[in-house]
Design brief:
The complex is a heterotrimer of chains A (285), B (363) and C (291). Chain A is mostly helical and 285 residues long. Chain A contains twelve helices and no strands. Chain A has one domain. Chain C has one domain: ABC transporter involved in vitamin B12 uptake, BtuC (Orthogonal Bundle), CATH 1.10.3470. Chain C has eleven helices and two strands. In chain C, β1 and β2 form a beta hairpin. Classes of the chains: A mainly alpha (285), B alpha/beta (363), C mainly alpha (291).
């Protein structure tokens, strides 16, 4: 009971955000893709999970299908945006997020639209077990991404980020590498969506909200671009930071905006004063 | 491999925390009964949280302690706040003056943990089926939608058009209106909140079908801008809406555009309920504000918990049973009796019309 | 049917004029400074809320002037406190873009704390007569919006093409390094850009505030439509982005005449997506790379 149960709850959500931060950093930090569509992959994973598990599919299968769904969505987004860089890529991926939200809202026979999907079964009954599974998954994801970024693939990704033309001259297939990075990043976000759907047990089109996107960016920037350790630390800090505000006697109608202002100030402050974040190795180009 | 170390340490930390959590049950009987309040105190829907809060504060129930948390109308934030209330503050009941999605998220957990919840604001039909620990003391969108359809039927309006906000409440109203209406639905249009500032094309589409009556179902304050655009488009057919969807602040903001509008009205707003009128007067006297329906509901929710607390103490199952057995409780918002699903049983709603700056009950 | 078509076109024009007011300031800043100033939406919202605040204390004309001045100061403060610091460090435009999103969120929440979440109406325009043109209906405020936009865009065109300031701005926009060699001080041009852009944003916010209601997140919804229009028309060309915003207003309004109205926002974003993929420089613009 009591305090530990609250910590477990926060632990579950911070694991979810750490997964999102690690995967966003793979695209943003390691590959240099300014991807504002990350929250769309998260939402796609959550919706696939919700719809399929309501059809009675077993949990392990919905998990795999959510990951595959994220992978496909990432690859599909990589194709049309292959030629876009920087600001234009940011706008196109943001547009992708909005289009996904509009589909969730309007394809009612599939998603029930604004009514949302209630009664999604929980992954496991108790939060303790839930924390075990989600932290296990987070560790696996972190190890996988850390292995990937240290491998020759990761070195190529960073070479593409730093000097795309140079990588091309060396005969690297830039498009394939970018597609791979976006696909893996998207499938991890979808996995986070899988855990989200099974934890909250209800989803509606608000999973595509821009607010969560800001949160993820704040995590990655605070932790540092192209640093997996940074994503973990940034994710935990940004998620937990506003929680103490509940206990120091602020009026609860100030806490909400204060949270958002805090995130925005951290984001801007880091960009201005410490652009490489805590552990970052590169600047955002 | 530093990263691996740190991850393992955090994993081990979490495992230790989960292991520790099984034991230590603290129960202190001396403290008053604690009730958690959840609602959007910030964000675009904050008005619903604020209303409920004003009512709860006005109740001034001395034997219960209320702890307020902001859900921001977001299921994740709402669930975190709920967990804080139930695990850290050990609340014995929840008053939810909240949006539907967070209410569904934490209502489901409350049901599993056997924590009684009184829902003040949320509208979604899903809430009826969460379970026997969740009670709703407002009249639902279904009752509202049915009343609108009945009125249109009685007036002999043959062609009906609907414009609704695309959210759970808007869809609930619209579905129920369509189900009970006997004439032809000639147009059905919707809009989302972010682009609520412009419904002109929807109105132009509606206009070409020449409806005898237009049912407008918005939620929150965007109603004023919609009423304005309806008048500007020159739509002359009578307008029907739900009284809870168009609160008085919306009517005031709409100004002349609200002239002739019909809304549903419960006993509380139509001043047909002695206790309600007394409450409104007292509330206005002390705060200088008009007590909206949701303020009275918040007041009733706090008083219900306070009254039951005297017999049940911290026994949550007892609180639930007492709530379920509530019969003809004379609250400020009306008479409260729950059906087997924990929904409020109400008589049929009336209709009223806004003319020359005041309401006239028409049925 | 013809009156319906006229009404649809007029609705498209009104929506387009509103988007264009937002898009003009956005793309002016983007063309000179070479980054996406998302927080322009915050400047627009600030314009509306400042007018709301001052109109409670003053009569309309001083209220409007005060609101305009404070909005411009607010925009310039954003530039000075954040963007200028980032420019000093030669930050990439991706950094500026993320910082501007942060500023946007910051503004929204400051408005929330300052004014509360409930919807506000500016009490200046209680009387708003409706006129009929070719069977289409239009209100006085809408006439004012269309007329003001046309006038502002004319002035902006004159300023950019015929004055020394405009020529200097275009020189910085075209090639910053060469502009410096002929003696144009870029930091003064950046200041001028922010003053002009924020003034445009402030006027947009005030007019939109009169036509619609005020709510804290209005800036975000408006800047999304504004930049969509700007990208369609060409984000580096002020005239292109005005054209793009008008196209967006028309397409949205005509589009949901045929499609269910739930797809209204989807139409805008599909259009954005298609343009970014097929013609990222927009109808009239050029692609931009920073310095």
């Amino acid at each position: 009971m009591a305090f530990s149960a609250y910590l477990i709850h926060l632990g579950i959500l911070s694991c979810m955000y750490v997964m999102l931060a690690i995967s966003l950093n793979l695209a943003l930090g390691f590959t240099g893709m300014l991807n504002l569509g990350h929250v769309a992959f998260f939402g796609i994973g959550a919706y696939i999970t919700a719809i399929l598990s309501m059809q009675g599919l077993p949990l392990w299968l919905t998990c795999i299908l959510a990951i595959i769904g994220g992978l496909i969505a990432g690859i599909l987004l990589a194709f049309p945006t292959a030629r876009l860089r920087g600001d234009y890529l940011a706008l196109a991926t943001l547009g992708f997020t909005f289009i996904m939200a509009a589909i969730a809202r309007n394809w009612q026979s599939l998603t029930r639209g604004a009514l949302g999907i209630p009664g999604i079964p929980r992954l496991v009954a108790s939060n303790e077990q839930y924390l075990f599974w989600i932290s296990l998954s987070t560790v696996i994801v972190a190890l996988l991404v850390s292995w990937l970024t240290k491998s020759s693939i990761g070195r190529t990704l960073q070479a593409i980020r730093d000097d795309e033309l140079g990588a091309m001259v060396l005969g690297k297939n830039v498009f394939a590498y970018r597609m791979l990075a976006l696909g893996v990043s998207a499938s991890i976000a979808a996995l986070a969506g899988f855990f989200f759907a099974h934890f909250i047990t209800f989803i509606d089109p608000s999973v595509f909200s821009i607010d969560d996107l800001i949160l993820m960016f704040a995590m990655v920037i605070l932790g540092g671009l192209a640093s997996n350790k940074g994503s973990v630390i940034g994710g935990v800090i940004i998620f937990l930071l506003p929680e103490p505000l509940r206990f120091i006697g602020f009026s609860s109608s100030i806490v909400g905006p204060a949270r958002a202002i805090l995130f925005a100030l951290i984001l801007i402050g880091m960009l201005v004063y410490r652009p490489r974040g805590i552990f970052g190795k590169v600047d955002l180009s | 491999m530093k990263l691996v170390n740190e991850l393992f340490f955090s994993l081990i930390f979490f495992i230790i925390v989960s292991a520790c959590s099984q034991n230590q049950e603290m129960q202190t009987q001396s403290v008053p009964i604690k009730i958690g309040f959840l609602g959007p105190l910030t964000g675009s829907q904050a008005v619903y949280g604020q209303w409920g809060r004003e009512g709860v504060e006005f109740a001034n129930a001395s034997n219960i302690k209320i702890i307020y948390e902001d859900s921001q109308c977001d299921p994740k934030v709402g669930l975190s706040a709920f967990t804080k209330l139930t695990e850290l503050d050990n609340v014995d009941g929840i008053i939810s003056s909240d949006c539907s999605s967070p209410t569904i998220a934490y209502g489901t957990v409350a049901q599993q943990k056997s924590i009684p919840v009184i829902v003040v604001a949320a509208n979604s039909p899903i809430i009826s089926n969460i379970g026997d620990f969740v009670f709703r003391i407002r009249y639902s969108s279904e009752q509202d939608g049915k009343a609108l359809a009945d009125f249109a039927n009685k007036q002999g309006w043959k062609n009906l058009a609907i414009l609704y906000q695309d959210n759970d409440a808007g869809r609930g109203y619209a579905a129920e209106t369509k189900k009970n209406y006997q004439g032809t639905i000639v147009a059905e249009e919707n809009y989302v909140l972010a682009s609520a500032s412009d419904v002109r094309v929807q109105l132009a589409k509606i206009q070409t079908r020449n409806p005898d009556v237009l049912v407008v179902l918005s939620q929150g304050d965007d109603g004023a801008v919609i009423l304005k655009q309806i008048k500007e488009a020159g739509i002359k057919s009578p307008l029907l809406t739900s009284g809870t969807a168009f609160p008085q602040s919306t009517i005031a903001a709409a100004g002349a555009s609200a002239e002739g509008l019909y809304t549903t009205v419960g006993m509380y707003e139509s001043d047909q309920w002695q206790k309600g009128s007394e409450f409104k007067e007292k509330f206005n006297e002390q705060t200088g504000k008009n007590g909206a329906y949701f303020v009275a509901l918040g007041y009733d929710a706090a008083n219900l918990f306070s009254q039951i607390a005297t017999t049940c103490g911290k026994d949550k199952t007892c609180i639930r049973t007492q709530l379920a057995n509530t019969k003809l409780y004379e609250g400020a918002s009306g008479e409260i009796t729950f059906d087997e699903k924990g929904e409020l049983i109400t008589g049929s709603l009336r209709m009223r019309q806004w003319r020359n700056g005041s309401w006239n009950v028409v049925s | 049917m013809s009156s319906i078509l006229a009404q649809l076109l007029l609705n498209g024009l009104i929506a387009g004029a509103i988007y264009a007011l937002v898009a003009a300031g956005f793309s002016l800043i983007c063309s000179v400074m070479k980054f996406m100033h998302f927080a322009h939406g915050g400047v627009v919202a600030a314009g509306a809320y400042f007018l709301f605040m001052f109109s409670q204390w003053f009569s309309p004309v001083p209220a409007i002037l005060l609101a305009l001045v404070t909005t411009v100061l607010f925009g310039v403060f954003m530039d000075w406190s954040v963007y200028k610091q980032l420019r000093k460090r030669h930050a990439s435009n991706a950094v500026l873009l993320i910082a501007s999103i942060g500023l946007m969120i910051l503004t929204t929440n400051l408005i929330l704390i300052g004014f509360g979440a409930d919807v506000k109406t500016i009490p200046l325009a209680q009387h708003n007569p409706v006129y009929t043109i070719l069977g289409a209906r239009i209100t006085l405020i809408q006439v004012v919006i269309i007329a003001t936009s046309a006038l502002l865009f004319g002035l902006l065109y004159y300023l950019m093409k015929c004055t020394r300031l405009g020529k200097a701005l275009r020189a910085v926009a075209d090639n910053n390094a060469i502009a410096q060699t002929v003696g144009i001080n870029p930091s003064r041009m950046y200041l001028a850009t922010f003053i002009l852009g924020s003034a445009l944003g402030g006027i947009a916010g005030m007019l939109i505030g009169l036509e619609q209601n005020l709510y804290p997140s209005m800036g975000l919804s408006l800047v999304i439509k504004g930049f969509t229009g700007a990208v369609i028309g060409g984000v580096t060309s002020v005239h292109g982005s005005i054209l793009g915003a008008l196209v967006l207003g028309m397409v949205e309004n005509l589009g949901i005449w045929y499609l269910p109205s739930g797809y209204k926002d989807a139409i805008a974003f599909v259009l954005l997506f298609v343009f970014l993929l097929l013609k990222p420089e927009g109808i009239l613009g050029k692609r931009f790379e920073r310095g």
